Amino acid sequence: MEAASTPAGESSKRLSPAQQKVFQNALPEYIAAKASSGDFAFGRYNLANLYVALNRPKEAIRNYEAALKIDDLFYPAKVNLAMLYNGRGENDKAERLFRDVVAKHPELYDVAYSLGLLLAEMGKHKEALGYLERAAKGLPERSRIQYNLGLLLQVLQRDSEAEEARRCFF
Known about the structure:
The chain is mainly alpha-helical.
């Protein structure tokens, strides 16, 4: 099981053929061990994260959803599922999940940032602004948020505000 836990995903591609064989032999045992805690949201969540690392999105989605059926308040599963949906272009699903987390956990500024970026990507610029501003205020040390806020303000033709926000980046 220990052999399978570390190299999942991209790092497994760098294994030698002998190491790859050990990894592939250990993987089913590792998955079975994770599945044995599948009655708990964190067990399904961990299994879903493994499937993401293995580039098996259907299994990942199934396990994130199972985690949320067990505990709808387990926001890490919602966030990761939203990120997975966004990566697959299923932005409406991602938006619903991000909105739910931000509404219930306004202190999670990283999630507000992700929602703001998603809304901007979807062309909902005015709505994205509020979330990026919230993230920028909550995480003032994260210059990348300031930069993205500046870019969005520029898109909204609020140039003086954009310049100020981006100045924080540099």
